[in-house]
Amino acid sequence: MEWVGEYAGMKVAVCVKQIPDPATPGRLDPTTNTLVRDGKLILDDSDAYGVEMGLQLVDAAGGGEVVLVSMAPHRETGGLRTALAMGADRAVLVSDDALAGSDALGTAKVLAAAIRPLGADLVLAATESTDGYTGTTPVQLAELLGLPSVTFAKRVELEGGGLRVRRQTEAGYDEVTCPLPALVTVTAGVVEPRYPSFKGIMGAKNKPVDVHTVADLGLDPAAAGWSGARQVIVDVAPSEQRRAGEVVEDQGDAHQAIIRFLEQIKVL
Amino acid sequence: MAVGRIWVVTESSGGVASPAGLELLAAARRLAPVVEAVHWGGDAAEVAAVLGGHGATRILTVGDLEGALPAVPVAAALAARIEASGPPDAVFLTASYDQRDLAGRLSARLDRPVLTNAVGVTEGADGLLAEHAAFGGSTVVRARITAPPPHLFVFRPRTFAAEAAGGPPADVEVLAVPDTGAAGAATIVHRHVAERAGPALDEASVVVAGGRGLGDPSRFGLIEQLARRLGGAPAGTRAVVDAGWVPYSYQVGQTGTTVKPTVYLACGISGATQHLVGMKGARHIVAINKDRDAPIFGVADLGVVGDVTKVLPRLLEALDARDDRGGTQ
Ligand SMILES: Cc1cc2nc3c(=O)[nH]c(=O)nc-3n(C[C@H](O)[C@H](O)[C@H](O)COP(=O)(O)OP(=O)(O)OC[C@H]3O[C@@H](n4cnc5c(N)ncnc54)[C@H](O)[C@@H]3O)c2cc1C
Asked: Ligand 1, residues B269, B273, B279, B310: which to mutate, most atoms within 8 A of Cβ?
């Protein structure tokens, strides 16, 4: 394994989002028309794959560091502690009231400011968050950091001093090579996230979480938050609902009703 | 604030334009007098007729990318074109793998916000309004960008119907790609095209989808058989994808593919809101579920309350018998 030396001391930054439990549906704030995100925050399931991937790559590299980077209101660390318990070394959290209402680009600017000083070899993120699912933040982040990016990774390997990534496509997948430093987004199922051990959970309590404000990061407050988003919700209305049609009870003959229906609509 | 010019990002392969770009051309044409297509790859001249026929007056092509992932060079070339000749009012993109990347790259490079997951667009007094489905499609949220142009919109595929306009072949303008440095270094070294017997899921006119109600991964064979028999594509819910019964490419819904077939057959699927957003646009919906109160029946034109493991084999058998009789009953 000649590459071990090449990658030793590899630093991986993993973007993680702390979100309200998706099992409890969100609602729109009637005055601001934005998704209300109160209650306790948990680690977005989609991000567990990035954390696991970071841990495995640092292992394969023969050592290094996994640093979590998150932006969340009220200095929330609930989700970060889960990822630290999985084995991440430390976390950087950006928390500032001025960030409320940030859009994807605003979020990317904040994450870029937090990641730049880390000198990461690799930035990992999920393809999209479970609650917002805009799906552009990681690539916006890569552009701001001047990094190449490979999105929708189904497999990530260290090869030739850089990465070899299997990237999901509409037709199948592409094998993509990419030098480091780089940003990669991983799909769910790319690796099997480990469950935090008891020791991990206890250890996570003492792992460092650096909290930054917008001013700390030298960011212009106007670049993020409501004003930075430069988009407004104009109105919210119920959508046209489909109406339920005929419902038949199967008495051993329902397949005939299906065939008749398919004939009617000329599928048969 | 009238919309004057829209760029529509199109994809093509071997001289065949993908349907998603043609769909967006149809939408753009209704909103702006000048519609231009953005393109990459070596086949601009070959797709000039079809893109022109669908309303593009010009193709802005970045040409053959020689294996580079497209987002970085295409965004750089478009940014340079905007710098030189001014921005269009809007750029329309499709939520494909490459175009989501392109939207992110363009947005950060131009410092413009991007509205993604749009399922419609209309013209308001202050510019274009993008429609977004919220809460499982029960709510439509309309949003507008207040930043200067270009306004970036990413639409879910199948949002609009493609429609030929009968225009002449589009002019081809070749855009130069500025040096992209390290950011442009990701290179495709091998393309793997998965074998697929039937139509692509998002283009199929019949979709047969299975859910957890099938009870067992081996019964997914019933879904595959019925899809094959009807010339359609098989699909699944996230529940069966997460359980490893079928690959992610089968998933229909919020975090999967959006489909708009002529008919969608939902077999053993509860009808969770995240699933419904991906298939509610089907012209017809047939559902089989043993629970009379399953939400899927709320959107079905024909609902069968029954055991999917019994109804499907009988349906397949009856279709075979029907074939033997030579068609209609
Ligand atoms: C953020 C987020 C994103 C999501 N994205 C998606 C997405 O993109 N796509 C998606 O599909 N889901 C998505 N989900 C998951 C979604 O909420 C549901 O959990 C999922 O769709 C349920 O799949 P199902 O209908 O197969 O299973 P279930 O909900 O378990 O339903 C099974 C159904 O089968 C019926 N049944 C059982 N046995 C039989 C039988 N013998 N015969 C007939 N019927 C039977 C039951 O009555 C039941 O209605 C998402 C969830 C979240 C939180």
From this structure: B269
pTM: 0.87
What's the sign of the alpha-carbon dihedral B234, B235, B240, B243? positive
Quick one: B5-185 is in which CATH superfamily? HUPs (3.40.50.620)
d(CA B322, CA B329): 7
Beta pairing, strands A172-178 & A41-43: unpaired
A4 domain-assigned: no
Centroid of ligand 1 to alpha carbon of B294 (angstroms): 10
* Element (DSSP H or E) covering residue B9: strand B5-9
Number of domains in chain A: 1
Domain spanning B201-324, CATH class: alpha beta
> Is A118 domain-assigned?
yes
Helix-, strand-, coil-residue percentages of chain B, each rounded to 5 = 35, 30, 40
Q: Is residue A253 part of a domain?
A: no
In a domain, A5, yes or no: no
pLDDT digits (tens, 9 = 90+) for A170-220: 888 999 999 999 999 998 878 999 999 999 999 999 999 999 999 999 998
Q: Quick check: ipTM above 0.95?
A: no
Whole-number Å distance, alpha carbon B238 to ligand 1 midpoint, is: 7
Angle at B83 between CA B78 and CA B89, to 5 degrees: 70
Question: Which tokens sit at A164?
Answer: 């070899």
Mean per-residue pLDDT of chain A? 91
Query: Which ligand 1 atom lies nearest to the CA of residue B309?
Result: 41
CB contact under 8 A, A143 and B304: no
* Spacing, Cα A265 to ligand 1 middle (Å): 27
The answer to whether residue A44 neighbours chain B at the CB level (below 8 Å) is no
pLDDT digits (tens, 9 = 90+) for B281-321: 899 999 999 999 999 999 999 999 999 999 999 999 999 99
N-term to C-term CA, chain A:
59
**CATH at A39:** 3.40.50.620
Instruction: Give pLDDT tens digits for B16-60.
Output: 999 999 999 999 999 999 999 999 999 999 999 999 999 999 999
